[in-house]
Known about the structure:
Blueprint: E1 11-16, H1 18-25, E2 30-32, E3 36-39, E4 48-52, E5 59-65, E6 71-78, H2 86-104, E7 110-115, E8 124-129, E9 132-137, H3 146-157, E10 161-166, H4 168-173, E11 183-186, E12 193-198, E13 201-206, H5 220-228, E14 234-238, H6 244-251, E15 256-261, H7 264-275, E16 282-287, H8 290-299, E17 304-309, H9 321-336, E18 339-349, H10 356-369, E19 374-380, E20 397-403
Parallel strand pairs: 1-4, 9-10, 14-15, 14-17, 15-16, 17-18
Antiparallel strand pairs: 1-3, 2-6, 4-5, 5-6, 7-8, 8-9, 10-11, 12-13, 18-20, 19-20
Helix pairs in contact: 2-3, 5-6, 8-9, 9-10
The structure holds S-adenosyl-L-homocysteine.
S-adenosyl-L-homocysteine (SAH) binds near residues 240 and 290.
Amino acid sequence: xxxVPDITTQRLAIKLxxxxxxxxxxxxxxxxxNSIAKQNVKGNAGDLAIVYDHKKNIILAIGLFDPYSPIxxxxxxxxxxxxINDEWFGNRIQQAYDKRKPLLETDTNSxxxxxxxxxxxxxxxxxxxxxxxxxxxxxxxxxPYLNDVIPHLIKQTACKSVIMRxxxxxxxxGKTYNLxxxxxxxxxxxxxxxxxxxxxxxxxxxxxxxxxxGYFLDHRHNRKRVGDFAKGKTVLDVFSYAGGFSVHALAxxxxxxxxxxxxxxxxxxAKHNAALNEHSGTHTIMxxxxxxxxxxxxxxxxxxxxxxxxxxxxxxxxxxxxKAKNSYARLAKLGAQLVTRKGxxxxxxxxxxxxxxxxxxxxxxxxTMSGRSxxxxxxxxxxxxxxxxxxxxxxxKCGYYELS
Length: 404
Ligand code: SAH
């Protein structure tokens, strides 16, 4: 397959400083620029970086060299040597697919097949929506390997078309071998908006223009959970985006669902997605800033049997962590005031910089501070198509609280 012209790569011999070497021995996939002690020749994007033990001349790991990132080497193979070739990629993709099999035995045809580092393909995301495969790249390291990798993905998923999405930094780098964000690199895409199912509920995503690859697959298990206990209930879905939680609640026979988001466009998608499924409950959209909207509903003395709050990542940078924690605290406090007696508050976070224990602690302290007591129903983490293989890979956590 000729997606990009042939790009020759070279092999680099690398030795690391002790702290960096220790991380690699633990199986961590990142080698930072300042951990490199020795490098035999100057590297280009995608060169194979062979990391040797600094004392014994044995191979510790193999990675791909990234001159454009402070994470200078992204490791793909640990402990033993291997030929990084067509067969190697085929095996990796097969392994990734096998992990997702239990999910594909449910009524679900949308899943993440490759989750970057966590599937030993750093910066490489592959999401499937029915017969459309969306590849999103976050690093230059993958261009030399695309001609090998994409055919395996097509074979494994039996997809009819492949869409290429590029991270913002790749798009602005000007070094993308004429690939552009949203281009169809295989097959024909009948429509930008693709309809797919998750646990029997129908959704749609714009795979060309939508956020990330078009949709947030990661909360699937939590959305199903909310749908399962929504029968006859009133539900408030805050930061609803395309209505993930709202639509599951409606499909699960909720009596009334309110979707709140700052984006009118996202709420229009939520409406559209709700209409794809039979439901008898009412669906209202509320275009508002979440903090203001929640306060407004409190002032109106509104109550809901289920309140779901799933904000965007508040801590994209290290210096935003405290602000993120304050926002989680405010949301828990506001949300708790809107839940009926014996109702359920669902609080989620997707900031990897705020770890799960901390997030749950903040949530619980602030529910209490709002004057409510609670029982923890459950705490959930990643669904099986988002496996986690290193600490920074873990970002999603979700607490279910029954309030009295
Ligand atoms: N819960 C969704 C995903 C949420 S994504 C799902 O299950 O698919 C985050 C959403 O938060 C986006 O739709 C974005 O428009 C919205 N958002 C960001 N800042 C906001 C704010 N201050 N108030 C309300 N919505 C906001």
